[in-house]
Amino acid sequence: MVGPRLRTGAGEPAVVRGRTTVADGVVEKIAGIAAREVPGIHALGGGFSRKMGAMRDRVPGGGSPVGRGVKVEVGEKQTAIDLDAVVEYGVSIIEVAADVRQNVIAAVERMTGLEVVEVNISVNDVHLPEEDLPVTDEGRVQ
Fold first, then answer.
1. Beta-carbon contacts of residue 24 (< 8 Å; ≥ 6 apart)
2. CA angle 109–92–43, rounded 5-degree value
């Protein structure tokens, strides 16, 4: 005769019946999207990584640009996030950085349940309006 089957977890709330892990890439994407939502952020990534990323984006299967400029360290319950940013000329870098921190922390904590212990932001460049003007190969005279 076989004895009664013991059910571990019976009566426990579903939230403690198992383990959920969140990959670094997931946190990178969430943080990247949340940072780009903030007015005053032109792009994420340093000059070299943006140029390499732009070339990679043109290649099929070249990877997602969403996590570019974002590095994370993810533990079981906490995460730390580093962002490389390019801001628009004329904005208050201090205010934009504060808004980015607030938006990134809210998005990552809400979506992953991880506690964000820090969001470090390195502003590597300022985007000037004239950098958006198209470059023409036309000569000076017609």
1. 72, 73, 74
2. 60
Q: Which domains does the chain have, with CATH numbers?
A: 22-129 (3.30.70.1350)
- Between CA 60 and CA 3 the distance in angstroms is 58
Give long-range contacts, CB 8 A cutoff, 24+ apart: 19-27: 20/113, 21/76, 22/74, 22/112, 22/113, 22/114, 23/74, 24/72, 24/73, 24/74, 25/67, 26/112, 27/72, 27/74, 27/79, 27/81, 27/108, 27/112, 27/114
Q: What is the residue type of 27?
A: V
Query: The tokens of 50 are what?
Result: 């943006």
Q: How confident is the model at residue 4 (pLDDT cuts 50, 70, 90)?
A: low
- pLDDT at residue number 52: 47
pLDDT digits (tens, 9 = 90+) for 71-112: 999 999 999 999 999 999 999 999 999 999 999 999 999 999
Backbone angles phi, psi at 83, to 5 degrees: -125, 135
